[in-house]
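ok so I'm stuck.
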Amino acid sequence: MPVRIKICGVTSLSDARFAVEEGADALGFVFYSSSPRYLAASAAAQISRSLPPFVARVGLFVDAGIEHVRDVISACNLDTIQLHGDESPAYCRHFAGVTKVIKAFRVRDAQSLDLMTQYETDAWLLDSYVPGKRGGTGHTFNWGLAMEAKMLGRPIILSGGLDSSNVTEAIRRVRPYAVDVSSGVESEPGHKDSSRVQAFIQAVRAGAPG
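replied:
not stuck anymore, here's the structure
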């Protein structure tokens, strides 16, 4: 199965279209106002309506109210939500049957994996632990822990400090369901660099089973 590619923190239609044309399977919109990649739901909805079929639209939230998330799902035609806060398993279950749910975990050590099995979400995203940061840090973590997480029974999305220089090796070692990139393909937060996006996707293909 080919490794899926998600480009996260998209803030413009031109960046979205280029990523899709190059082969991205999913685009992420950040609805966390403290992020430099924050995008208003109205702007994300305009981008979403302009995307072709079969491109996943993922909304990233951090400890947002359930009704707010539901409103954004509807307005932006999201098929997946990605939760990066301290959302509980019960919170995640509110969206069962509404949309796909990815729970993100910031991996610091082996104990970081203990919490995962409480979350019966559609996938787990593993990101780097950086104090005070919810993602997009540009830091990697111990991929051996990601390999351990694969044994716990959910599809693994690998994130954290990935770029064209290391994603091929990451895929060969971890064999994740998908990879997620944000800062690794940017010229500055929220602005994707076309050459970096292209190089990243090519590097993913180089590492994927063939």
